[in-house]
Amino acid sequence: MTDSIIVQIHKNWTEITLNRPDRLNSFNDEMHIALRSALEAARDTGMRAVLLTGAGRGFCAGQDLGDRDPSKMTGPPDLSVTVRTFYGPLVRLIRSLEFPVVCAVNGVAAGAGANLSLACDIVLAAQSAKFIQSFSKVGLIPDTGGSWHLPHLLGEARAKGLAFTAQPLPAQQAEDWGLIWKALPDADLMPEARAMTEKFANGPTLGLGLSKAAIQAACTHTLPEHLELEADYMKRCGESADYAEGVSSFLEKRTPHFKGC
Predict the structure, then answer these.
(1) pLDDT value at position 69?
(2) Domain 5-201 carries which CATH code?
(3) 3-state secondary structure at position 176
(4) Domain residue spans in the chain?
């Protein structure tokens, strides 16, 4: 057992809270392992959505640099091991989950913490939150998918500006730039995030999961290739119980009851 994360199981969705508030929820190896285990458990037990947030006044300050301090080592650290062992697999896992992952950024999201949020499907942020690409302050590059997500979401100019300057990006500006879905008053963040996650979990999660996969694949496809992918995914959706229920409920003017299959 670990107290580095808090896991709350709801009927058909899971809320995961990063729980090292005294360290602004910065990552150590224990929290990495616990978070991946919780996400894998959500997948393996049939959960239909996940909500990720942080405890205390911050979402996540990235890597705990106390664990990567060259002055306490016999030689320089091989940071590629950290990326390949922890951050890379974490991003791949989140992106591969066949259901929505909502991130509620409750405070500062810096370094790998900022880019962890960008790996999620829907990012909500408190108005007081800030996103900081802090890597340049310690001579590093944006990892945890940051050097991929930033230019794809913002374009090269803004991506380089954030990476080079480490300038904090306020939540409202992040929304205005299209980096996140929505900035909310602090008091509204968790109620809205929980309501959204529950709505997704009770929605047509087969279609939502395939929408996620299709959108993520778009940047690597030509248009003809992507039209074929759409056809394949529409076939799967059209054969699903959720589609039949969706059409029936629409025609009968009633609330649908989706099962995610």
Answers:
(1) 75
(2) 3.90.226.10
(3) helix
(4) 5-201, 205-252
